[in-house]
Amino acid sequence: MEKSSIQSLLLYCRPGFEKECAAEIQAQAQKLDVLGYSKASPDSGYVLFTPYEPDHMAILTKQLLFVDLCFARQMVAVLPLVSGLPVDDRISPLLGAVSGLARQFSDAWLETADTNDAKELSVFVRKFQGPLTRSIVDAGLATNKANAPRLHLFFLNSTTVYLGISRPGNSSPWPMGIPRLKFPRSAPSRSTLKLEEALLFFLGDDPKSLQPGMKAVDLGAAPGGWTWQLVKRSIRVTAVDNGPMDRELMDSGIVEHLRVDGFRYFPAKPVDWLVCDMVEQPSRIATLIGRWMAGGHCRNAMFNLKLPMKKRYEELKQCRATIEETLDNAEVPFKLAFKQLYHDREEVTGYLVRL
Ligand SMILES: C[S@@+](CC[C@H](N)C(=O)[O-])C[C@H]1O[C@@H](n2cnc3c(N)ncnc32)[C@H](O)[C@@H]1O
């Protein structure tokens, strides 16, 4: 097989959000003066972005931050598509191509898009993982260095694959960009997984900003899936919702339930965390989050924006601008990031922290 070089960025996304993912990568690349084109088939679960100027891939791999992409679940710098792999020996041509990507790899992930069509393919991918990993080790391509690039093989079918690399500090830490979280049996709602994933994704394994004894407000808390995540970490919660809270959670003794309007409630003293999962227009939530942070009512915020059916990327940009403008006017230094997490559906999660 002829040697080729990295040519495009492959972004995995939630099926149905390819248009948003493509618009976002075009805009982020343009901020780095990189122009290019996107290939994004509806419901395929991925987007391929290729700079017009091949040299510009280096700018993207060095300067583009994964955390700045909301709709991408994973970001991989890939070679041109490899197709027509011989079914009796897929490994030899793959190893030949792989050695052109990096000298050694910290991991090798065999992946597919997160679509129903790809589910059948995942059986093949699981079977192929063992033999391929052994060949990579035997060829001296594996290393224990955690910061070495990760190898990705993103299969479109059993003979067609994108080969690429991601950098561990600038990509999702999970295969396919999907954390395998187990639903905790005592949690009162499946929504609990949204906050668990958000905390893991934005704060990592051992966050200093989530400590026992801290205080939080949960707006739109009922029945208590998000509150449950905070209580698990021994954080005291004021749960704001007209709906009923889970009895067991209330028995913890560290939850206060207030049946008041989440848009009118503000705490008497500042709290460490605001979390908000109210089903409301995104623009109203963005305004509210900006007010909380600008008014010094919280230090950190994790919140959900339920996106409309149309113009979802535009809506997100508008919400971001609302929060940024409010905090800039109040001269509050901050960091703001958005991600469409695996457990998010037609929504995205925002993370805001006062610096
Ligand atoms: C998606 S549910 C929240 C689920 C919750 N995060 C969990 O994990 O169990 C949305 C909640 O927002 C509440 N809500 C909507 N508008 C509200 C408002 N203006 N004030 C307070 N709660 C509100 C609803 O009553 C509903 O319980």
Distance between the termini: 51 Å
* CATH first level of the largest domain: Alpha Beta
Tally of individual helices: 9
Our count of domains comes out at: 2
Q: Please tell me the overall pLDDT.
A: 96
What is the CATH architecture term of the largest domain?
A: 2-Layer Sandwich
**Radius of gyration from the CA trace?**
22 Å
Strand and helix layout:
Layout: E1 8-12, H1 18-31, E2 36-39, E3 46-51, H2 57-63, E4 74-78, H3 91-98, E5 107-111, H4 116-138, E6 150-157, E7 160-166, H5 192-203, E8 215-219, H6 225-232, E9 236-240, H7 247-250, E10 255-258, E11 271-276, H8 282-294, E12 298-306, H9 312-329, E13 334-339, E14 347-354
Parallel strand pairs: 5-6, 8-9, 8-11, 9-10, 11-12
Antiparallel strand pairs: 1-3, 1-4, 2-3, 4-7, 6-7, 12-14, 13-14
Helix pairs in contact: 5-6, 8-9
Bound molecules: S-adenosylmethionine.
S-adenosylmethionine binds at residues 188-189, 191-192, 220-226, 240-243, 261-263, 277-280.
Short recap of the structure:
Helix content is 30%, strand content 23%. The chain is of the alpha/beta class. The strands form two sheets. It has a seven-stranded mixed sheet. A seven-stranded mixed sheet has the order 10-9-8-11-12-14-13, with helices on both faces.
Report on this model:
The protein has helices at 18-31, 57-63, 91-98, 116-138, 192-203, 225-232, 247-250, 282-294, 312-329, and strands at 8-12, 36-39, 46-51, 74-78, 107-111, 150-157, 160-166, 215-219, 236-240, 255-258, 271-276, 298-306, 334-339, 347-354. The protein has two domains: 8-177, THUMP fold; 192-354, Vaccinia Virus protein VP39 (Rossmann fold), CATH 3.40.50.150. It contains nine helices and 14 strands. The protein is an alpha/beta fold. Helix 5 (192-203) crosses helix 6 and helix 8 runs parallel beside helix 9. Helix 8 (282-294) links the parallel strand 11 and strand 12 (298-306). The chain has a seven-stranded mixed beta sheet. A seven-stranded mixed beta sheet has the order 10-9-8-11-12-14-13, sandwiched between helices. The site of S-adenosylmethionine has 22 residues, from helix 6.
